[in-house]
Every structure is written in structure tokens, then in C-alpha cells.
């Protein structure tokens, strides 16, 4: 059941807040003395469009503020689509990316924190545009609706459906009794960690303040947009690599852990089973890749191999998508390990994408319990996470998500393979095979990672794809970030039934 008036009010609030946030790159066009006829006009036009959409919707608050679960999910999906379309206007109006489909792909990639790009001249783009690209990561990482909830003057029971739809993971839990306080705590932690990373990156003589802000916002949202064509590899600095590696993994952790640490519940934070599993998987993949690079003599010694292996593994597992090396040139076993951690992703309640470690843990334990049940039919085997039993409802939800996720992946792979039967001749030198190329493109988009393999590798982009392929992959990015249900509910006619 849809409460159309309340949905319009929420979308209007988002539009007005986004207009306020867009004032930052708008002001930057003057500070950096950019072409006022292009970037200044582009951001000014977009702000005007957002205000024209938002102000009429929020002038009067609806009397009926109740929304159902399905209404909340559809509202979230509409919000993300609106943000992606309107957010694309500055790129198109400034002339940086004349094709509007390319602009939408870029913005979907930005807000969903994917980081797949079709911008070919990154180093030559205006600073305000580069800032806006990375800012979309920061906004989308925690979620624009979570931000709206944080700004609400008082709690509304309806907003729980919005946060459930936007916060990634199999379960949504409040940190404190009131949702708006939970949202504020999350954003305070998010902002504090972003600022800390900026400070640490500026400490490097190779990175100026603007670059530090760009890369910190992209790291925080686990997105991966850089203002350098060579990504983080441009700096070729071990200190920068270590700082960003650490923060990529921190932002891939459940933010509840940081809250427990802040209030002094260190033991509760350390007992988090998902956190332990995430770092075990990260460590195992890093060691495996390091050994492979060392054995193959890809780099001069073990420690350099470890540095590049840890960065690329953290980048793929956190689904950030930064790169310091072209792993297309690495051994095949490293590609397999990177694809595995790409699918696993980060923790629930983080800014990372992927299937989420908690789902992997619950799925593995459920499968093991099923095998024990087959061996001993009369036995009672309980699946536990963090020492607490996992409900049958949650186990079914995880199983259903796996089925839907892999079904969408297969359908997308078939569509992309039909649309893009071969790699363009200009990129034949990086062709890793028809199946691997297309599979990595779909996998990197639905997992919100960014770089794939072959012509979609870290030193290339998605510009060579047709418009239809970009639409399919944009759809995959939205499905991955919002975890399928909100987007799919848009195609369910009963979800649009007006509320009585």
C-alpha cells in the first residue's frame, strides 16, 4: 500500500537536502576559477531543479505519515533513482560527459558506491566535478535516507521501513531506542572516521588536501572514485597504501562494532563473529596472493608483494575498487581469490557491498547443520551467530537472497553477453576471454566493487560498452546496493496500491 503524499514528502526532503550538499561543489567552481559558463551553470541548474522538485513537496507535511513496509521499500528505490538521474545533470550540462546515459551510469555508480567509471579523462576533469563524483560515494555509503532520518526533529515509526531498505545486511538493528539517534550516531562515527583519514593522508608529502578529501570520501563510502587516472597507484607511496588499506577494511566493518568500542564494550565488539570471519577471509586471501606474487617474481621481494596484495585484497573485499597495480597481469590464481573476496564483500551494517560476510557465515552454518541432520535425522541442530540462535525466518531470508542474487547475476550475464559478444578491437590486447570479461563486469557491478578483469580491469573503464549494457549494469548496481527487494518491488503492481 502506497502513501503517495508521504512518499512525495520524503522525496522532496531528499531533494532539498541534496541541493544543500551540492552547494559545496557549486562554491568550488568559483574557488578554483573554473569555466563559469559550464560547471557553475551546471551545478546552479541542478540545485534549481532539486529545489523545484523538493520545495512544493515539503511545504505542507502530510496528515497521514504512516507508511507500510512495501511503501518504504519503493520510496527508497525511487529516491535512489531520482538522485542518480538529477545528480547526472552537472556532468552533462558542464560538457564533461555529453552522453546522458553515460552520466546516469556514472552517478548510479557513484551513489551505489560502485566506482565503475566511463569518464576517460579523469585527470583533466574540473575539480568541482571530481569532488561531486566522490561526494556521491560519501552520501551513498551510509545512505541519504539515513541522513534524512538523522535530521528529523522527532522520531516517526514509519522511518524504520526506510532504514531497513537502505542499511545493508540480512538484519537491521537499532543502536539505541530512537531511530533518529541511531542515525545520528552512525553519521557521527562515519564523519569522524572520514576526517581522521583525511588528516592521515595529508601527512604524506605526496598528497595535497584536495586529493586527501577526494580519496577519503571514496574510501568512506567504499566507492573508489579517484581524481587520478591511475587511482591510488598514481602516488606510488607505501604510507598512503597502508593508510587507505586500513581504512578500507575499517569501513567494511559493521558500524555497531565502533559504537560498542566508543561506549567501552570492548569485549562485545571483539566477540563479533562476522568481524572475525571477515578478517580471517581477508588474511587468507592476502597471504595466498602474496605467496603467488612472490613465487612468480612479480615484485622484487616478499614485502612489496605483501603491500600490493593487501591493498588489492582490501579494495576488492571492501568493494572500494581503488587500485595500486594492474592485477590483469597477475597469475590466474590471484584473479580467482580476488573474485571470491569480491563476492563475499564486507560486513552487514557497513558501507561495503557484496553478499556480506554474515550471510556467508549463516549460509555455511546452515549447510553444515543440514548435513548433520541428514546423518542424524533425530538430532536437533541449531545455527548460531555470536552465540545466539539464528531464527528460521532469517535463515530462509538468507537462502532466498542467495537464490535471487545468483538468478539476477545469470540473467545479467546472458544479457551482457548478447549485447557485447566481443571485446572492441582497440582493447584486444587485454582480452581475458569472453566469459571472464562479461562475468567480471556483472560481478563487479552487482557487488558494487568497480574494477573487473580484462577490459574492465583497474587501468581501464566501462566507456567502450553500448548504452544498453550500461543500463543493464546500472540496474545491477542499484540491485546490489539496495539488496534486490526495494528495486524489485517497484515492478510489483500491488505495491503501488494507494493507501486508504
Please sum up the structure shown:
This protein is mostly helical and 500 residues long.
Draw up the topology in text:
Blueprint: H1 4-31, H2 36-58, H3 69-87, H4 89-93, H5 100-111, H6 127-142, H7 144-151, H8 159-166, H9 179-202, H10 209-220, H11 238-251, H12 255-262, H13 266-270, H14 273-295, H15 302-317, H16 332-344, H17 357-375, E1 384-385, E2 388-389, H18 392-419, H19 434-446, H20 467-481, H21 485-489
Antiparallel strand pairs: 1-2
Roughly how much helix do the residues carry, as a percent range?
55-70%
Rg of Cα set: 22 Å
- Which structural class is indicated by helix and strand composition? mainly alpha
Shape: globular
- Helix count, DSSP H or I runs of 4 or more residues: 21
Low-pLDDT residue intervals, each spanning 5 or more residues: none
Largest sheet: 2 strands, antiparallel
Roughly what fraction of the amino acids lie in strands?
Answer: under 5%
Strands, count: 2
- How far is it from the N-terminal to the C-terminal residue, by CA? 8 Å
Average pLDDT taken over every residue = 89
Amino acid at each position: 500500500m502506497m502513501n503517495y503524499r508521504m512518499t512525495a514528502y520524503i522525496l522532496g526532503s531528499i531533494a532539498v537536502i541534496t541541493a544543500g550538499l551540492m552547494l559545496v561543489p557549486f562554491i568550488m567552481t568559483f574557488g578554483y576559477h573554473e569555466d563559469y559558463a559550464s560547471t557553475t551553470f551546471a551545478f546552479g541548474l541542478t540545485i534549481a531543479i532539486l529545489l523545484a522538485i523538493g520545495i512544493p513537496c515539503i511545504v505542507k507535511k502530510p496528515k497521514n505519515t504512516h507508511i507500510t513496509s512495501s511503501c518504504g521499500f519503493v520510496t527508497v528505490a525511487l529516491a535512489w533513482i531520482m538522485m542518480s538521474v538529477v545528480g547526472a545533470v552537472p556532468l552533462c550540462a558542464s560538457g564533461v560527459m555529453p552522453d546522458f546515459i553515460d552520466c546516469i551510469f556514472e552517478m548510479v555508480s557513484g551513489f551505489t558506491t560502485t566506482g565503475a567509471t566511463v569518464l576517460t579523462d579523469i585527470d583533466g576533469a574540473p575539480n568541482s566535478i571530481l569532488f561531486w563524483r566522490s561526494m556521491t560515494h560519501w552520501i551513498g555509503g551510509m545512505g541519504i535516507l539515513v541522513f534524512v532520518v538523522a535530521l528529523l526533529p522527532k522520531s516517526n515509526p514509519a522511518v524504520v521501513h526506510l532504514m531497513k531498505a537502505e542499511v545493508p545486511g540480512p538484519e537491521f538493528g537499532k543502536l539505541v531506542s530512537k531511530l533518529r539517534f541511531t542515525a545520528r550516531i552512525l553519521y557521527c562515527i562515519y564523519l569522524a572516521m572520514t576526517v581522521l583519514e583525511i588528516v592521515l593522508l595529508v601527512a604524506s608529502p605526496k598528497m595535497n588536501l584536495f586529493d586527501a578529501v577526494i580519496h577519503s570520501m571514496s574510501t568512506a563510502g567504499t566507492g573508489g572514485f579517484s581524481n587520478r587516472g591511475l587511482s591510488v597507484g598514481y602516488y606510488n607511496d607505501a604510507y598512503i597504501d597502508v593508510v587507505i588499506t586500513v581504512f578500507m577494511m575499517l569501513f567494511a566493518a559493521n558500524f555497531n562494532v565502533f559504537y560498542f568500542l566508543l561506549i567501552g564494550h570492548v569485549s562485545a565488539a571483539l566477540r563479533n563473529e562476522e568481524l572475525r570471519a571477515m578478517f580471517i577471509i581477508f588474511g587468507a586471501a592476502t597471504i595466498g596472493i602474496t605467496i603467488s606474487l612472490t613465487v612468480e617474481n612479480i615484485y622484487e621481494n616478499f614485502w612489496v608483494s605483501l603491500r600490493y596484495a593487501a591493498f588489492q585484497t582490501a579494495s576488492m573485499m571492501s568493494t572500494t575498487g581503488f587500485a595500486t597495480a594492474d592485477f590483469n597481469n597477475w597469475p590466474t590464481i590471484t584473479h580467482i581469490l580476488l573474485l571470491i573476496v569480491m563476492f563475499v564483500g564486507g560486513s552487514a551494517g557497513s558501507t561495503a557491498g557484496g553478499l556480506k560476510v554474515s550471510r556467508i557465515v549463516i549460509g555455511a552454518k546452515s549447510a553444515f547443520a543440514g548435513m548433520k541432520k541428514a546423518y542424524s535425522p533425530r538430532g536437533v541442530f541449531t545455527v548460531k551467530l555470536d552465540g545466539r540462535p539464528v531464527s528460521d525466518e532469517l535463515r530462509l531470508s538468507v537462502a532466498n537472497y542467495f537464490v535471487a542474487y545468483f538468478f539476477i547475476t545469470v540473467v545479467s550475464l546472458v544479457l551482457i553477453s548478447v549485447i557485447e559478444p566481443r571485446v572492441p578491437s582497440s582493447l584486444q590486447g587485454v582480452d581475458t576471454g569472453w566469459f571472464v570479461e562479461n562475468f567480471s563486469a556483472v560481478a563487479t557491478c552487482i557487488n558494487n566493487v568497480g574494477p573487473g578483469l580484462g577490459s574492465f580491469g583497474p587501468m581501464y573503464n566501462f566507456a567502450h560498452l553500448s548504452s544498453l549494457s550500461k543500463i543493464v549494469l546500472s540496474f545491477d548496481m542499484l540491485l546490489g546496493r539496495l539488496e534486490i527487494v526495494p528495486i524489485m518491488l517497484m515492478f510489483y503492481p500491488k505495491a503501488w496500491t494507494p493507501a486508504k
